[in-house]
Design brief:
The chain is α/β, with parallel strands linked by helices and 230 residues long. The chain is 50% helix and 8% strand.
Length: 230
């Protein structure tokens, strides 16, 4: 039986899902559809062909365009037993939710961690914002900590927050680039300098170990269990 994973992401998001499924479902073919509209159109064409389809569309529902496409996608998928929707806010949110994010990115007593303390506090608030919502006071505090425009939607904020926390490290991630230290063996970072020390310096992991930890200690675990991929 063939297995397909379709996502809307290109760039860093596509690379992230490719690495994840290489470890957890090695025979799955991961494909990017470029955007959520093309993803939904592709799902519309799926028939009872004996294959299984796992579909990843960002679920930042405070974005009206995303919400509209998501409703259409769910309607289409409800009548197709071989289509499974993975309920994920965004790949950036998966990484932000990772339990050991700070412990991987920053070494103990790292000056960079101290400089980014406001962002790390904002991260904790942001996880609560997406999972449960924030009071107006808590939201104002988040914006004060980050300096982000209040008109940004939550997916844009997730991308900005992950970028700002990981900036100038081997984990640096933006829309176009996945931080190679999230997914590659320690310590194979091509641009690593002698004084570049992260939290994994004394307990180095290989690529598979990293992916398995990212899955087990982030929101991804429950999502994959819901569609019986774990």
């Amino acid at each position: 039986m063939k297995t397909y994973v379709w996502c809307e992401d290109s760039g860093a998001g596509y690379e992230f899902w490719r690495y994840i499924f290489k470890v957890i479902q090695g025979d799955a073919k991961v494909e990017s559809k470029g955007n959520n509209t093309e993803l939904r159109k592709s799902v519309e064409q799926i028939g009872n062909d004996g294959a299984e389809y796992y579909v990843i569309m960002d679920m930042a529902v405070d974005n009206p365009d995303v919400l509209r496409e998501l409703k259409r996608l769910n309607t289409l998928a409800s009548g197709k037993h071989n289509v499974h929707i993975l309920k994920i806010h965004s790949f950036e949110f998966v990484l932000l939710s990772f339990k050991w994010l700070e412990d991987w990115v920053f070494a103990k007593e790292d000056e960079l961690k101290k400089k980014r303390e406001k962002l790390l506090k904002a991260r904790r608030l942001f996880l609560q914002l997406v999972e449960y919502g924030l009071t107006q006071e808590e939201r104002s505090r988040f914006l004060a900590l980050t300096g982000y425009d209040e008109n940004k939607n939550s997916e844009q904020m997730a991308a900005a927050l992950l970028r700002d926390i990981t900036r100038n490290t081997g984990f640096e991630t933006n829309k176009g680039k996945l931080g190679e230290c999230f997914v590659n063996d320690c310590c194979t970072w091509e641009n690593r300098q002698k004084d570049d020390i992260c939290g994994l310096n004394d307990s180095r992991l290989d690529s598979n170990e990293k992916i398995n930890q990212l899955v087990q200690y982030s929101v991804l675990r429950n999502t994959l269990q819901e569609v019986r991929l774990l």
